[in-house]
Design goal:
Blueprint (H helix, E strand, L loop, with lengths): L1 H19 L6 H6 L2 H9 L3 H16 L3 H7 L5 H26 L3 H22 L16 H4 L2 H4 L3 H22 L1
Helix pairs in contact: 1-3, 1-4, 3-4, 3-6, 3-10, 4-6, 6-7, 7-10
Length: 180
């Protein structure tokens, strides 16, 4: 039962990330992509299992870049694999931080730590990468015009913060309803 839940979480996360991210994303899917990993992490006994499931789901979903990086640009296959792993790791860390705070019933902190961890990763990456904000999740939301106004105040980091705050809030709402 637990293995099936883990595999289902990986598959759903991967599908939502695959179609919600990339060069032609379906923007609405990314709002829900973290939800399965957050729900699973809060319910599983082992933090390592939560981390592996979160990592695998995001990693597999991000492999949608293989075609572009490898076949269109002609780069080595290692590049999209490194990109996938390089984004799956901070995602797994953010999920683990959410899990730790949620299990301590620090719901407000859990709500904030998930998007804050991801945005911190994106911000540091923008400072250290030659590609700047190129991988920022805000670019997945370009067709959601009202949300783009947030970037005029926060830069590209406000959009992924709100995007991931939504998943975090929804996860906490669903998880706390099952506790009562």
């Amino acid at each position: 039962h637990h293995i099936l839940a883990a595999l289902l979480t990986i598959a759903i996360t991967a599908i939502l990330v695959w179609f919600g991210n990339g060069l032609n994303p379906i923007w609405a899917l990314l709002w829900f992509a973290p939800l399965p990993a957050l729900l699973f992490a809060a319910r599983t006994r082992l933090a390592t299992t939560a981390a592996l499931v979160a990592f695998a789901g995001w990693f597999l979903g991000t492999l949608n870049f293989v075609y572009y990086f490898h076949y269109v640009l002609g780069g080595p296959l290692s590049i999209p694999l490194e990109v996938a792993a390089g984004t799956a790791l901070p995602f797994a860390i953010a999920v683990l931080l959410f899990r730790a705070l949620f299990l301590r019933r620090a719901y407000t902190a859990a709500l904030i730590v998930f998007p804050a961890t991801w945005v911190s990763f994106e911000f540091i990456l923008s400072l250290t990468s030659a590609h700047g904000t190129g991988g920022n999740l805000s670019y997945t939301q370009l067709k959601l015009h009202p949300l783009l106004q947030v970037a005029s105040i926060t830069g590209p980091w406000g959009i992924p913060f709100l995007l991931l705050l939504f998943s975090s809030a929804l996860a906490i709402t669903l998880l706390t309803r099952t506790l009562h």
